[in-house]
Design goal:
The complex is a heterodimer of chains A (about 250) and B (about 220). Chain A is about 80% helix and about 0% strand. With about 250 residues, chain A is mainly alpha-helical. The chains are: A mainly alpha (about 250), B mainly alpha (about 220). Chain B: It is found in: Cell membrane; Membrane.
Chain lengths: ~250, ~220
């Protein structure tokens, strides 16, 4: 292990330990502050356990739906463009995805809403998934492309079919990179899900928007801190999962 | 009205918005580059310090931009101040990380040689280490700029300057004749700006990377 990797690992370990502590302190502190304040009727309608839980739940559901969509699209497309018959398509697909990534998330969300006139969960989930697609797509392609060709040859040599080589050699070896991409996508999704409130997709962005529009800083801050806490928590869970889910031989 | 007519007709408003968008992103990137490189230089020799700097800045990047903006509104009000603070914070991670990676990647034989011919610490840093690390630092700055292009659009929610204004105004006028054109002009404008600025970075790289390590 080089000194550089050792440092990166050390930074990871610091976040692994520090992040959950920071989340608990931050969210706990702000909730205690918000609930002990003198609240007017608008604030009481927004800052109560039921409403906060529902918005957090909506936010999580939106993020999970986005992640499922990303996995269902990005991994098959990533695998397809690394097959021999479609190899020419890999740079094209990655190029389109990279240019697409330059589009602002809020623009994609608003345009999707204006074009389809949908509202709610799917109106938020589809454009956010489109926006969070790139990390998983790129890492799937790179992960499979960087598998040692000698291993693929060896698999073919002992009589595996193309499908078996993909399933038992290429994909398992690409899993660590795909998981890293998935973690990035998930964090992007949780963050972008705060914008879901603009198209009535619910979530914690709703509290931020309400607090801002009705000039209730307590509501705004509570929503924002919950969103920050959730993002840090999901990122932390991703880091833990990344350590636990990779194939044993590669750890 | 189709998009093209719309752009031609509103050109006198879209152009200043695009200019403001680009200038906000570029100025904030410059502030973040100065702060980020300084931070990187301050910590790169200490493993614990660089781990802490990387961990902190990557935690900032995890924070949803809409939430950070929301938190800044009660403190800093609307308009330019929350926009600048948010943009600078988000730009830090790629720059700090790449500065640390670039500086620690410099071969210690080279710095020893520089010391050996009589350079002091500062000269070794400015004449040798930073120049060798510059391609990595420049990549970090480039990544930050691309990131800020999109985040600056969200800053329009807090009355920040730029093309995000068109997107939010399109959302507010959903159903009216030019709503889609507005959102489309704002979104595509940002994509075009991002690609243009990325091109500028390729040029800057050609001009500023030391001749000895250019490929």
């Amino acid at each position: 292990m080089t000194a550089l990797e050792a440092r990166a690992r050390r930074a990871d370990r610091m976040r692994l330990l520090g992040q959950p502590v920071a989340v608990v302190l931050l969210v706990g502190g702000v909730l205690a502050w918000a609930f002990t304040r003198d609240l007017d009727s608008i604030e009481r309608a927004n800052i109560n356990a039921a409403k906060l839980l529902r918005d957090t739940w909506d936010h999580l559901v939106l993020s999970v739906v986005v992640t499922a969509l990303v996995l269902a699209v990005a991994v098959p497309v990533g695998v397809a463009v690394t097959r021999r018959w479609a190899r020419w398509a890999a740079p094209v697909v990655l190029g389109i995805a990279t240019v697409g990534q330059a589009a602002p998330a809020v623009g994609v969300l608003v345009l999707f809403f204006l074009w389809t006139e949908w509202e709610g969960l799917w109106a938020a989930a589809l454009p956010i998934a489109l926006y969070s697609l790139l990390p998983v797509l790129r890492n799937t392609v790179v992960g499979i492309q960087s598998v040692d060709p000698a291993l693929v040859e060896a698999g073919r040599g002992i009589g595996m079919s193309g499908g078996a080589v993909l399933r038992r050699i290429e994909l398992p070896l690409a899993v660590p990179l795909i998981l890293a991409g998935l973690r990035t996508s998930l964090v992007l999704a949780v963050g972008t899900a705060t914008l879901g409130a603009f198209v009535n997709g619910g979530g914690l962005g709703l509290l931020i928007d309400t607090g801002y529009k009705l000039n209730r800083p307590t509501v705004l801050v509570t929503g924002a801190v919950l969103a920050v806490g959730l993002a840090l928590l999901v990122d932390w869970l991703g880091a833990v999962a990344e350590r636990g889910l990779g194939p044993k031989g590669l750890r | 009205m189709d998009l093209w007519d719309f752009i031609v007709q509103r050109w006198d408003r879209l152009l200043p918005e695009a200019a403001l968008h680009a200038s906000a992103v570029i100025q904030c990137t410059i502030i973040a580059a100065v702060a980020g490189v300084a931070l990187g230089v301050a910590v790169y020799r200490s493993p614990a310090g660089s781990a802490l700097a990387t961990a902190l800045t990557s935690a900032i990047l995890t924070v949803p931009s809409f939430a950070l903006l929301g938190l800044l509104i009660p403190v800093l009000g609307l308009g330019v101040p929350p926009t600048v603070v948010a943009l600078v914070l988000y730009a830090l991670l790629p720059i700090v990380r790449n500065t640390i990676v670039g500086l620690s990647g410099v071969d210690s034989a080279i710095t020893d040689a520089a010391r050996g011919i009589g350079m002091n610490r500062l000269r070794v840093l400015t004449r040798v280490e930073l120049r060798l690390a510059w391609p990595a630092i420049l990549t970090g700055i480039r990544v930050s700029t691309q990131l800020l292009m999109g985040i600056a659009a969200i800053a329009a929610y807090a009355k920040g300057p730029g093309l995000g204004t068109e997107i939010f105004s399109g959302l507010a006028r959903a159903g009216s004749a030019n709503a889609t054109n507005q959102a489309l002009a704002g979104t595509l404008g940002i994509v075009v700006l991002a690609l243009l600025v990325d091109g500028v970075f390729v040029l800057v790289g050609r001009l500023t990377v030391s001749r000895g390590i250019r490929d």
